[in-house]
Structures are given as C-alpha cells and as structure tokens.
Amino acid sequence: MIDVEQRLRSALTARAEQITPERLGVGVPPTLAVPRRSRRWWRWLPVPAGAVAAAVLIVIAAGPSAESPEPVLPGGPPQTSVAPSPPTPEPTTDGSGEPRPATSPPMPAPSVPGPPGPTPSGSGPPGPTPSGSAPPVSPPTVSAPAVTVTPERSPLAVPPAG
Amino acid sequence: MIHVLPFPPLLRWLRRSLTEVSQPTRATTAPPGPPAINELYHSRRLSLVRLAVLMVDDLPTAEDIVQDVFAALYRRHGADLRGVTDPHAYLVTGVTNAARSALRRRRTARAYSPPPPGTVPAAEDEALLGMGENDREVLLGLRRLTDRQRQVLVLRYWSELSEQEIADAMRVTRGTVKSTAHRALSILRDHLGER
Question: ipTM, 2 decimals?
C-alpha cells in the first residue's frame, strides 16, 4: 500500500510539473475580466413598494368582512324562526274614500234574509238558514279586515229572496 | 407578511451601509495597492490550474475552471474579499466542484457524439506522451476511478490536505473521505498488479 501511495505521489507531481507558467495563457485578473456590478439597486425599489401597496389594499378590502358577529347572550331568548303570518289584504280606498279590501273577492252574503247585520263574519248572531243547516263558516281571510269593510259589503249582498 | 429583505440588491445595500456606519475609517485607512483578489489570483493561479489539470486532465479546461472560480469569487465577495474567512479553501472547493461539473459535461457530450477512433488523440491522452512508463500506468489507473475517488486521491496525495479539509472541500463527511480513499487505493493497487 505504501508503494502505491509513493507511486501515486510521484505520478501526480510529474503530471503537475508539466504545467509551467509559460504554458499558461495570459491571465486576466478578475477585476478586469468581470464587468463591474451595476449599483442601480433603486431599480428594484418599485417591487417592494408595489407589494406594500397591494398588501394595504388587501387589508382595506378585507376589513369589513373581518368583523365578528354579535355574541348571543346566554340568557337571551332563543332565536326561533317565526312562521309568516297569513297575508292580510290591505284596505284600499275607492273614489268615495271608503276603505275596501284589495284582493279578496266579494263574499256572498248569506242567502237567508235577515236583518242587515253589521258584520257578515259572524260577529253577530247568525240568522236561521232555510235548510236548517249549520251556519256557513266564513273564510279566515275576511275576518281580519271585516271590521272596516262592513258598510261596503251590504249593498253587494244577495238581495233577500222575496 | 411581506418579505422585502431577501431582495439581493437591497440586502447588499443594507449590509454595506451598516458596515460603513460601524467602520467609518476603514476605507480611508486602507493601504493603496492592487485589490486583494488580484494578488490572490497572481499567487495561486498556477497551483490551482495544476490541481484542476490533475482532476480533468487537459489544460484548456483547467484554465477555464480556474478563471471561472476567480470570477465567481470576485462577483460574490468583491475585490477586497471582505467576508471570506479562508479564500484558499474557498478556491479549492470551487475548483473541485467545477472540475466535477466539467467531467460530467464531457461525459455527456462524448456519450452523444463519441470521437471517431484512430484520429487525433484527446487532450488528456496527449498529456501522457511525455511521461515515464511508471507514471503513465498510475495516471491510467486514476482514470478507472470515479470522479469522487480521483478527487479524494488528488487532494490527499498532491494537495496534501487532511481528511477533514478534504471533507470540507467536497462537502462530505470525514468517514466518506476515508472510505473513498481506501477504496480508490485498492482499485489502483489492483490495476498496478500489486498485492
């Protein structure tokens, strides 16, 4: 092994000594061979400035959505979904200034002659029917505005037979 | 959130500014003369070219390697080599890595377009013509080794570096250097016919 190392050293030295300064090319020092670096570092300045501006815009745009919802008090009433109430027709006025139901069709008056009651919704005592059956039940949609439209409904009622 | 500092020009400018603030009289008290890298170039060029020749075998490639390493050193650390703790180790490491890259490129090029046989000898073969029989056998045996094995032997038996210095230059562990050298010597001994 030692002989191999000695032979290796000898061969490497002989090969290296073949390279003499005369065989080398003209050496150009690196300060002359390499172009000087440009000092225009300020050319990079718009890049971080643009990044900062973009970050500010993102923060501003994301600001309102970052608000937290109001906390629910532990002792407060539970939030339940309220069922929508049945639509109530708003009273409208005709030319005479009298309020009228807007959408509900005119309800037929009871066919039984009787005293013109002020309320067809059954607020007063129902009159007897000829068939003797139970008094008709008025639809619930009429019951709410019934108070205000009663004066207008009596002329539209079916005239009593006879 | 925003990484501004990794921009190399800004970082360099900040570093230079801080250095000038902390050492304001350094530039005025520096002795006039050639830059440090030029002195290093004139004093170390020949030995580095020899080192590269032992690794890549031909002189033009070795000269290019050394020139590129000096250019990279100047480009990275400037003419006064501020910030380089050991320029010699830096140069040896650079030559070693560049030689390995040159050998890889040469191998790839010859794999795609092999030279026609029987024509002009390659530059590395021409170098063996003026050598003795004994040394030529050893150098031919070196060509049988891998790039890493050959570099370990050159750094150890010509540059006379220690195992740790070779490990630092090649960026491997000391154990790797030791085992690589042992394996390379065994191959070389088998080639030379010694027991």
Answer: 0.74
